[in-house]
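From the shared-data thread, chain only:
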Amino acid sequence: MLLQDLGVRIPRPLANGPSRFIPEKEILQVSKVDVRTQTIFEDAFAALGRLDNISLVMGFHPQYLESFLRTQHYLLQMDGPLSLYYRHYIGIMAAARHQCSYLVNLHVNDFLQVGGDPKWLNGLDGAPQKLQHLGELNKILAHRPWLLTKTHIEQLLKAEEHSWSLAELIHAVVLLTHYHSLASFTFGCGISPEIHSEGGHTFRPPSVGQYCVCDIANGNGHANHHDDMSANQEVSGEVEVLMEKMKQLQECRDEEEASQEEMATRFEREKTESMLVATAEDEEGVPSRDVSRHFEDPSYGYKDFSRRGEHVPTFRVQDYSWEDHGYSLVNRLYPDVGQLLDEKFQMAYNLTYNTMAMHKDVDTSMLRRAIWNYIHCMFGIRYDDYDYGEINQLLDRSFKVYIKTMVCSPEKTTKRMYESFWRQFQHSEKVHVNLLLMEARMQAELLYALRAITRYMT
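Structure, as C-alpha cells:
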C-alpha cells in the first residue's frame, strides 16, 4: 500500500536543485568528479549535520569552499567572545537587512537549537537591549558603510549595563559583514531553499509537465542558457574581444604610466559613473513581515554617495588597509580570525584556473583586479596605484548592473541579470565572479568598521 493511500502527505521540492540559475546536473557533477570536493562535503556534513545549498554551489571551487567553511565554523562554533545564540541572532539580523529569508530561516533553526529564547524571534524589540543597540550599526554597514563614525562605536561601547566589549564588537562586526556579503552570494547564485526548509517544499502534485508554477512565472524553467544556440551566435566572440582588450591594456601599461593626478581623476570619474549605474529595475521592494521584524527602519537602503549632492570623502587604502591595519586589529581582539579572513580574501582574489570560457593558459589577474577594485570604488575606496580607466574597458554595462545589484541591493537580483553578463562563460566562472563580489564587499564593509573602531581607540 502506498503512503499516499494512508493519507500521509509527502513533500515535493519546489526547486529544481540547489540553484534557480544553474542546472542541477552541473552542480552534482562536481562532487562526483572531484574527490577533494567530496571529502569537504563529507566533513561539512559531519560538523553541521547538513550540507546546505550554498556549499553545494561553492563546490565548483573546492579550495575556496574549504577556507569559507573553516572561517564560518570558527565564527559560529569555536571559542569566541559572544555566546552561540547571540552569534546566530546576529546572523539573522544581518541577513534580514537584505530580506534573505534563506539565511534567516537557516539561523532561526540554529538559534533555537543552541538554546536561544524563541521570544527574541518575534522581533528585534523582543531581543535584549544590547542586541537592539546593534541595529544601527547593522543598518549602516549593510547599506551605507561610509557613514560609519567613531561616535557609533562609542555609543555601543559606553551603553552602561548594555555595553559591548571591544572583543565582542569585533566578533559582531565580522558576523554582520559575513552575512551581508553571504546574502549577496545567495541571491547572486539564485540559491534555493532545501526541501526541509520553509519555502523549499510543497504538498501539491506536480503541475504543467513537472514545472513548478512559480518557476514558470519567474522564467526559471529547465532550459540552460549555455545551450541556447541563438544566444550563443549573438554573443560569439565576446570572450575573444575581452581577451584582446586585456592584451591591449597590458601593452599600454608597459609603454606608459599615467600621472598621479590623472589616476586620481580616473578614480573620481569611475566612482561618479558607478553612481549612475541603476540596480535591477530600481524598484522599491517591500520586505515581508516575516523577515522585516528582525530589523528596524526597513526603508533604509543603499544610496549612492553623490545623490542629492552629498559628498563622501574618498577612502584611501594607503591610509587604512586590511593588510596593514585591519588584519592586526581583528587578530588582536579576536585571535586567529584575522588570519582566517585573510586566507579567505586571498583565496578569492588569487583563485584562477588560467581559463576564460573555452580558452586555456590565460592570465586573468587583470580582470579579477578590475572586478575587485570596481566594487571597492562603488564604496568610495581608492587604490593609488590602480588605473581606474581599465574598468570601463573590461566590464561592460550589463556586468556592471549585475555587480551593483548583487553588492548593493542583492534582493533585486534576477535570473535574467545573471544570464545577461558573460554569456559564453561557464557557470563555474560566474560562481567564481560571485565569490569575488562577496569577498570584496565584505572587505569594504570591514575596512569602514575597523577604521571607525581604530579611531575610537586612538
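The beta strands are 12-13, 201-202, 315-316, 355-356, 359-360, 381-382.
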